[in-house]
Amino acid sequence: MPTLPLTLAVITYNEADSIARCLDSVPFAAEKLVVDSGSDDDTVAIAQAHRARVVHQDWLGFGAQRNFATTQCAHEWILVLDADEFLSPALIAEMERVLPALMAGEAPAAWLRRRTVYMGRPMRWYRPAVGEKLARLYHRDRARWSDARVHESLRFTGRAPTFDAPFDHVNNPTLVHKQLKVLRYAELKCRDWLEKGKPVRMWQAPFVYLLAFVKDYFARLAFLDGWRGFMIAQTAASYALYKRMRYYEMTHNPPSVARAGTMLSRHGLDR
What share of residues in the chain are helix, strand, coil (percent, to 5)? Predict the structure, then answer.
């Protein structure tokens, strides 16, 4: 496929194990940009060896980091992937057919479908893991990322087409990786709540856990994926509960914010 005037943008921090696969999966991008926030492994060297231009930016939070990356892109159309994501051969072929006309039109963005690999195998039934729609392709002047520290989203107005073929996401190599990610994401989300002055409603906590588990395990069909589905549902419910417990602690013991930040930084989970 000939290259197209499009930038692949990836934000990284210690992604040496996966960045090459991500970059190589987009052969048609005229530019590959990596915005790194201070990796101390081989992420930068590997990215450069795989034809990426690397820019350093201290960590700003997910939304702000992606918006910064947008300002560094050489092309108007941008494809965003995380380092642990990569395009499937089927999606590459579909993009070869569709992208030229899409990029010549007035669409602000496009939706992609994400397929998740969990515990070494793709999930088969759990809905968010077999076709989750995410806006990841966009025109820099027609869309912008929210400024959230975590769980950011691409915001735009107007109709956006959806690609049929999926891209792949290797979701946390082990449960240990997942639990560390839960700690980090919960802390970031709670800091957002703290800044916005969100009310503390601990009475909701038991119901939040139960409803989150039921939603994922039954409504989203995780139970059809066996024990892997149970683990996904349990982890999601635990995350929903832990966020509320941690937020309660932040509001009732304000020094815990800085103390936890120091501990997370010591283990490379905050920066």
Answer: 45, 25, 30
**Beta pairing, strands 132-139 & 109-118:** antiparallel
DSSP code of 155?
E
Q: CB of 107 within 8 A of CB of 46? A: no
Q: Are 22 and 13 in contact (CB under 8 A)?
A: no
Joined together, the tokens standing for residue 219 give: 């409504």
The CA distances from residue 246 to 7, 62, 76, 205, 229, in Å, are: 38, 20, 40, 11, 26
- DSSP-based three-state secondary structure for 61: coil
* Residue 126 φ/ψ region, left for φ over 0, alpha for ψ in the -120 to 50 degree band, beta for the rest: beta
Whether the CB-CB separation of 271 and 265 falls below 8 Å is answered with yes
Beta-carbon contacts of 182 under 8 Å, excluding residues fewer than 6 positions away, are 235, 238, 239, 242
pLDDT tens sequence across 191-217 = 999 999 999 999 999 999 999 999 999
CB contact at 8 A, 218 and 210: no
Query: 151 to each of 95, 122, 190, how far by Cα in Å?
Result: 26, 23, 12
Q: Is the pTM above the cut of 0.85?
A: yes
Q: Quick one: average pLDDT of 20-28? A: 98
